[in-house]
């Protein structure tokens, strides 16, 4: 029997608590139907007997207090809600317990932005981690010693697991179910819940908004120029001249301020514009390519797939709201 502890932190997402409980309880049922013994003993664990979530609209009653909980096999840290710094600060009393569980041999899994609480334990220092694509910049600022994996659905390193945004945590759960049971059971569960068990990237869902929470006005000016002239082919030298900064200094400052090189930033802005066009228009791939300043089909396709994980045709067919045939 595997003891699974699902934490109930303050300011957490209710679904990220209920879904793991539902998932592992369902797996127990699948196992029973196939003539096998239930494998998972699932319990909600918290600091108090009642924890109110979503501004008091919901109450969760943990099965056990952490002070009553012995060594477990697997700990789930659900997604947090609201301001991440405040949410992490509100749950610091959980940190020593999480660390003790990990040091005692438990595997620890964070769901979506639950990675912020996991990282605050220090267990992720120098390790890889996934989180919601919309929070990667904030995560890097708060935990510079953690290697955030852009676009990853599931990350695993030294008995510590993390997942990408929102429903990506289902992929992590089926990954763990397969590890503890077998591929057949995990596949059955993924079909039952209509989850693509082998999805590896959240890149296709990511929206690039540009990182402007910095004070380098020259870099902001360059960013705004790039974003308002996506149809142009521009060089780093031209941008540096436009903001009257030497190229070498400009590249260094741009990387420091945005987390991207100048060329990476230009690529991501152009590909984001291409994504929006594929989603909302009937333009063909070449038309969109020219609209965002690319003239070489191979380069455009390669860059698009590198950033989104899909080819332009795959992306258009999957996300175009107007519908396509063939």
Describe what is shown at a glance.
The protein is of the alpha/beta class and 326 residues long.
Describe the structure.
The strands form three sheets. Strands 5-2-1-6-7-11-10 form a seven-stranded mixed β-sheet, sandwiched between helices. 45% of the residues lie in helices and 13% in strands. With 326 residues, it is of the alpha/beta class.
Order of helices and strands: EHEEEEEHHEHEHEEEHHHHHHHHH
**Structural class label:** alpha/beta
Instruction: Note the overall shape.
Output: globular
Average pLDDT: 87
- Oligomer, anyone? single chain
Largest sheet: 7 strands, mixed
How are the strands ordered across the major sheet?
A: 5-2-1-6-7-11-10
Q: Ranges with pLDDT <50 over ≥5 residues?
A: none
Q: Report how far the terminal alpha carbons are from each other.
A: 49 Å
Share of residues in strands = 5-15%
DSSP summary: helix tally = 14
Number of strand elements: 11
Helical content class: 40-55%
Rg for CA atoms: 23 Å
Which descriptors would you attach to this protein?
two-stranded antiparallel ribbon; 14 helices; seven-stranded mixed β-sheet; alpha/beta; 326 residues; 45% helix
Write the layout of secondary structure elements.
Blueprint: E1 2-7, H1 15-33, E2 40-46, E3 51-53, E4 58-60, E5 64-65, E6 74-77, H2 84-90, H3 95-103, E7 107-110, H4 115-120, E8 128-129, H5 136-142, E9 147-148, E10 154-157, E11 160-163, H6 168-180, H7 183-192, H8 217-228, H9 236-242, H10 247-258, H11 262-280, H12 285-291, H13 297-308, H14 312-319
Parallel strand pairs: 1-2, 1-6, 2-5, 6-7, 7-11, 8-9
Antiparallel strand pairs: 3-4, 10-11
Helix pairs in contact: 1-6, 1-7, 6-7
């Amino acid at each position: 029997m595997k003891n699974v502890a699902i934490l109930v932190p303050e300011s957490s997402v209710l679904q990220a608590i209920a879904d793991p409980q539902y998932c592992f309880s369902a797996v127990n049922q699948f196992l029973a139907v196939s003539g096998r013994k239930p494998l998972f003993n699932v319990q909600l664990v918290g600091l108090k007997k009642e924890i109110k979530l979503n501004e008091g609209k919901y109450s969760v009653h943990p099965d056990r207090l952490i002070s009553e909980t012995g060594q477990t096999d697997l700990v789930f840290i659900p997604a947090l809600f609201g301001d991440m710094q405040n949410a992490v600060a509100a749950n610091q009393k959980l940190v020593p317990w999480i660390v003790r569980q990990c040091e005692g041999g438990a595997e620890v899994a964070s769901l979506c932005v639950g990675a912020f609480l996991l990282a605050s334990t220090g267990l992720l220092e120098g390790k890889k981690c996934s989180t919601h694509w919309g929070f990667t910049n904030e995560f890097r600022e708060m935990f510079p010693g953690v290697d955030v994996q852009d676009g990853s659905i599931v990350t695993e390193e030294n008995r510590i697991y993390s997942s990408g945004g929102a429903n990506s945590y289902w992929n992590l759960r089926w990954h763990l179910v397969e590890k503890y049971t077998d591929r057949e059971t995990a596949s059955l569960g993924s079909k039952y819940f209509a989850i693509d068990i082998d999805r590896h990237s959240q890149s296709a869902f990511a929206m690039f908004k540009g990182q402007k929470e910095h004070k380098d006005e020259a870099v902001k000016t360059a960013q705004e120029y790039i974003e308002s002239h996506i149809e142009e082919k521009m060089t780093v030298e031209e941008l540096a001249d436009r903001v009257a900064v030497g190229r070498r200094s400009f590249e260094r400052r741009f990387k420091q301020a945005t987390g991207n090189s100048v060329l990476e930033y230009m690529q991501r802005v152009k590909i984001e514009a291409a994504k929006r066009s594929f989603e909302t228009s009937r333009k063909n791939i070449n038309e969109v390519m020219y609209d965002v300043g690319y003239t070489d089909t191979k380069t455009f396709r390669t860059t698009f797939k590198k950033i989104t994980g899909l080819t332009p045709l795959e992306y258009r067919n999957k996300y175009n709201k107007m519908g396509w045939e063939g």
